[in-house]
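Researcher: Structure prediction, please.
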Amino acid sequence: MFLGTHTKIHLGWAKFRLRKAVDGILPKEVQSREDKLGFAIPQDRWVTALESHIREQLAGKLACGDFGDRDKLQKRIRQGTLGGKTLW
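Model: Predicted structure follows.
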């Protein structure tokens, strides 16, 4: 679901709709905290656990098709870099 910026930030308050949704449910001191950073996810753990599967998918038959050099792609995947970014 897309929410425009005007519904996310209101009078300087970020996550405005979320704060309003929990009005009367969460204590005011929690609802009005200014240091809300979002929800942490264990991304590093997921990538590490799925690294071999990710490598397989990236280097698989469908990865390049007729649009690229499969050998070059597989070499970069083995090196752990792609597009100048570190993969793992």
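Model: Residues 43-59 form the longest helix (17 residues).
Researcher: Thanks, that helps.
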